[in-house]
């Protein structure tokens, strides 16, 4: 079952896992060592991230290494970009208004 990317990144542990494997591919055991939780609990988070294609597994011998899927995160970033431009415009307008008010009060 495919998971919703927003559901996946809503959890702080899953965001931390993404941050870890964005730097370096890790096995589930290596990830579990970074958190105060069991390997089984980490595996549940891995499943959610894998189901929404934010991470991809690669087998190396008996180990499975999970890699960060930058392309999927880029799709998410493109979706956010439309909102980013809107709030940047609003922040610029607010900045100009504050500058105008500051200039008027110093005169």
UniProtKB/TrEMBL annotation:
It comes from the Bacteria. Gene3D superfamilies: Winged helix-like DNA-binding domain superfamily/Winged helix DNA-binding domain (1.10.10.10). NCBIfam families: HTH_metalloreg. Residues 1-88 form the HTH arsR-type domain. It comes from Mucilaginibacter gracilis. Pfam families: HTH_20 (PF12840). InterPro entries: ArsR-like_HTH, HTH_ArsR_DNA-bd_dom, WH-like_DNA-bd_sf, WH_DNA-bd_sf. GO terms for molecular function: DNA-binding transcription factor activity. This is ArsR family transcriptional regulator.
């Amino acid at each position: 079952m495919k998971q919703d990317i927003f559901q996946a990144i809503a959890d702080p542990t899953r965001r931390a896992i993404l941050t870890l494997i964005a730097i370096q591919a890790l096995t589930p055991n290596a990830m579990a060592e970074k958190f105060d939780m069991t390997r089984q609990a980490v595996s549940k988070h891995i499943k959610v991230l894998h189901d929404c294609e934010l991470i991809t597994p690669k087998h190396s011998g008996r180990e499975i290494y999970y890699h960060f899927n930058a392309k999927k995160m880029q799709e998410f970033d493109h979706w956010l970009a439309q909102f980013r431009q809107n709030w940047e415009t609003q922040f610029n307008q607010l900045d100009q208004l504050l500058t105008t008010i500051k200039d008027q009060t110093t005169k």
